[in-house]
């Protein structure tokens, strides 16, 4: 692809060779594509399917974009990429073959295309695995929420609940307490330690013991939490901490080293242990908000470009020396 050429999100190139293929078209991936496009690098951003926050009504806490809807955020990002000639391919990456002859990776797409890339930047994010409680998934991103920094302001001073069952659940309840005085913690299937009960009591967080049977709604809104013994606890918003599963299969298949937490190990710039392979966003940092993931994508993209400049400079020096040797021999 020539620098300056443009495609839209609906175009399906049959293939192509790029300096960088970015896998993932959420906040981190689009941000990386923007930075790379502005460096005049032939770049493709590949991704299909909903983003993690697709069901949310707003993105909050993002300076200058506070309150924007996720679809509008993505649409604005894609429009900005198009201005810089970045190819946006709506497809799913099946596999990335290691760099072979010529130092290029092969990126195989579900639609049958094969892209060639000098460098790969993976920003495939994660998926949230919710407890199998009836009614919970249906309200996810609406009035069943995860991040109080993202949604706490909007839930301020309402009757709030926090669903336990995860190691960080008590900490989440203590954090949510900042936004309302009416907090009830549901331990669900976990027993609280004496220290945990003391901390909750000290912060004025009530505990409703016993397993949660279902989430109750009325007229399209969450109205309460029903316990296994039949008790119905009235609530308007429920926070929970789902199990976060990083979508790092492409990275692990390439042999990228894992850190102690089981996620792919990267340095501060997003460089993995495999030369030419980078990662950014929730695929390597499972608690990154949209603004943090956006920043990670930009940082990784700038580092990728610096690495390519070093590669190109080293090649140019070698060519220069060969030319100088020829000239001196004449």
UniProtKB/TrEMBL annotation:
Name of this chain's protein: NAD(P)/FAD-dependent oxidoreductase
Reactions catalysed, as given in the entry: [thioredoxin]-dithiol + NADP(+) = [thioredoxin]-disulfide + NADPH + H(+)
Residues annotated as transmembrane: none
Key word Secreted present: no
InterPro entries reported for this sequence: FAD/NAD-bd_sf, FAD/NAD-binding_dom, Ferredoxin-NADP_redctase_2
FAD/NAD(P)-binding domain sequence ranges: 18-297
Annotated keywords: Flavoprotein, Oxidoreductase
Entry-linked SUPFAM superfamilies: FAD/NAD(P)-binding domain
UniProt superkingdom: Bacteria
């Amino acid at each position: 692809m020539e620098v300056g050429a443009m495609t839209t999100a609906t175009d399906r190139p049959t293939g192509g060779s790029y300096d960088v293929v970015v896998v993932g078209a959420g906040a981190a991936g689009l941000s990386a594509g923007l930075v790379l496009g502005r460096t005049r690098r032939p770049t493709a951003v590949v991704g299909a399917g909903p983003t993690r926050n697709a069901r949310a009504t707003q993105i909050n806490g993002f300076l200058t974009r506070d309150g924007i809807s996720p679809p509008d955020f993505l649409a604005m990002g894609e429009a900005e990429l198009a201005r810089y000639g970045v190819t946006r391919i709506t497809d799913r990456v099946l596999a990335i073959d290691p760099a072979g002859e010529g130092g290029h990776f092969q990126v195989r797409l579900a639609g049958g295309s094969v892209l060639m890339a000098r460098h790969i930047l993976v920003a495939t994010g994660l998926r949230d695995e919710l407890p199998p409680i009836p009614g919970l998934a249906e309200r996810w991103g609406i009035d069943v929420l995860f991040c109080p920094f993202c949604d706490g302001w909007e839930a301020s001073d309402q009757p709030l609940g926090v669903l336990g069952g995860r190691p960080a659940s008590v900490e989440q309840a203590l954090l949510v307490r900042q936004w309302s005085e009416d907090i009830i913690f549901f331990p669900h299937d976990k027993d609280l330690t004496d220290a945990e009960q003391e901390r909750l009591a000290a912060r004025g967080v009530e505990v409703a013991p016993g397993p949660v049977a279902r989430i109750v709604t009325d007229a399209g809104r969450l109205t309460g939490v029903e316990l296994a013994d039949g008790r119905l606890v009235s609530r308007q918003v429920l926070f929970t901490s789902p199990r976060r599963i990083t979508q790092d299969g492409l990275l692990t298949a390439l042999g990228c080293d894992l850190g102690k937490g089981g996620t792919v190990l990267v340095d501060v710039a997003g460089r993995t242990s495999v030369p030419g392979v980078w990662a950014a966003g929730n695929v390597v940092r499972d608690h990154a908000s949209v603004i943090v993931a956006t920043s990670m994508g930009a940082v990784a993209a700038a580092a990728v470009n610096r690495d390519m400049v070093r590669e190109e400079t080293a090649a140019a020096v070698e060519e220069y020396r060969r030319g100088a040797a020829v000239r001196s021999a004449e």
